[in-house]
Specification:
single chain; alpha+beta; 5-stranded antiparallel β-sheet; 9 helices; 13 strands; 18% strand
């Protein structure tokens, strides 16, 4: 999740564990420890891009490290809070509670989190977008309100406010799993009606909501991408865009660390295209940036996570391609319209844009 959400959640958990002992200082300490696992980015400038993909949300987000950190920090924190009569066990539980909830909500996104490090498999539950104000706002409002309640007499109200903020946000997470189940059922029903078999499939929400969902279905030689709003009902047809996977584009590059890293990082949800200097590869989990009208009736898609694999590069053979986020206002307006069933605002004749050295590629689709 985004840094603001991590800080707010850490502050709310800190208040729940230490608010009675530390007052508003519990919010500050929770905020600090709520962002601590993401300080792995400090090392990022010194790593190659391949190593960065492994490192971010890597060891610092593992169960092993959070247990060691909770044990190792409990004694100095208890000493620091000695006047406030915070025991070593409570200090340790504070660190574990804040650290583990940070990791937990990271697991709700599609990025993947190395909970089981040093084992390579990442956890991704795909039920929340990386930024969701409706998840963050209840905790933030409660924290701002309770920060002004500083007397012992106001302590019960302070705890109730924090419980309400955490409770509403937790209920929103539970609702997101329900919305995901509804959307997944609709995608599965659509494929079944068509008689289409897939080897695997996943769903994830589109930006800032849990109503409009994106599905990616693996058919072996191609990945199908479709959209569905829970407002449409289970029987609404899905329009699938077909992205050929094109494994042949990586011929001769399979043994490069860059190639193996992207395949691992994307959990196999990738497509590739050959170009004169190597290959272009994109992770299909994160969605696409859309532009409309470059050609009449068309919609062009550029993937948010894409790289060039350059075997002859002198420094790092894996080079990220930064997608330009232009026209976000139009995208959100069209996304909102599609959410409520206005398909013409979102769909069009699909093309793949942003492949290094290539013009937009016309894609197939299934209505």
């Amino acid at each position: 999740m985004d840094s603001l959400t991590q800080a707010v959640l850490g502050a709310a958990v800190g208040e729940a564990v230490l608010g009675r002992k530390l007052g508003n200082r519990a919010i500050g300490w929770g905020l600090l420890f709520g962002t601590l696992p993401d300080l792995d980015v400090i090392v990022s400038p010194f790593l190659s891009h391949s190593w960065n993909l492994w490192w971010h949300r890597g060891p610092s987000h593992s169960l092993l490290v959070m247990i060691l950190a909770s044990w190792g920090l409990s004694k100095p924190l208890a000493k620091w809070w000695k006047r406030d009569k915070v025991s070593r066990s409570r200090a340790g539980w504070f660190v574990f509670a804040v650290w583990s909830t940070h990791v937990l909500i990271d697991c709700f996104t599609v990025y993947g989190t190395s909970v089981w490090w040093p084992f390579p498999q990442r956890v991704a539950l795909n039920n929340l977008f990386i930024i969701d104000p409706l998840f963050t706002a209840p905790m933030l409002v409660a924290l701002v309100w309770l920060a002004f309640l500083r007397t012992k007499k106001q302590l019960p109200k302070r705890r109730r406010l924090n419980a309400w903020g955490l409770g509403i946000s937790t209920a929103y997470v539970a609702l997101s799993f329900g919305m995901k189940a509804l959307a997944s059922s609709a995608f599965e029903a659509d494929l079944k009606r068509r008689g289409v078999e897939v080897t695997r499939r996943f769903e994830a929400p589109t930006p800032f909501n849990i109503v409009f969902w994106r599905s990616v279905a693996d058919r072996g030689d191609a990945l199908w991408v479709g959209y569905h709003s829970v407002f449409e009902g289970r029987d609404a047809p899905v329009r699938w865009t077909v992205y050929p996977k094109n494994e042949a584009a990586l011929a001769g590059l399979e043994d490069l660390r860059a190639t193996r890293t992207v395949k691992w990082f994307s959990n196999g949800w990738w497509i590739a295209r050959k170009h004169v200097k190597g290959a272009w590869i994109a992770d299909m989990r994160f969605g696409e940036l859309r532009t409309w009208g470059a050609r009449k009736g068309s919609v062009d898609s550029r993937f948010m996570f894409a790289w060039d694999i350059l075997p002859d590069a002198h420094n790092d053979p894996l080079q990220p391609i930064r997608a330009k986020r232009s026209g976000m206002g139009e995208t959100l307006e069209r996304l909102s319209a599609r959410m409520f069933g206005i398909r013409g605002k979102w769909e069009g004749n699909p093309r793949l844009e942003g492949v290094t050295g290539s013009l937009p590629e016309t894609l197939g689709f299934v209505d």
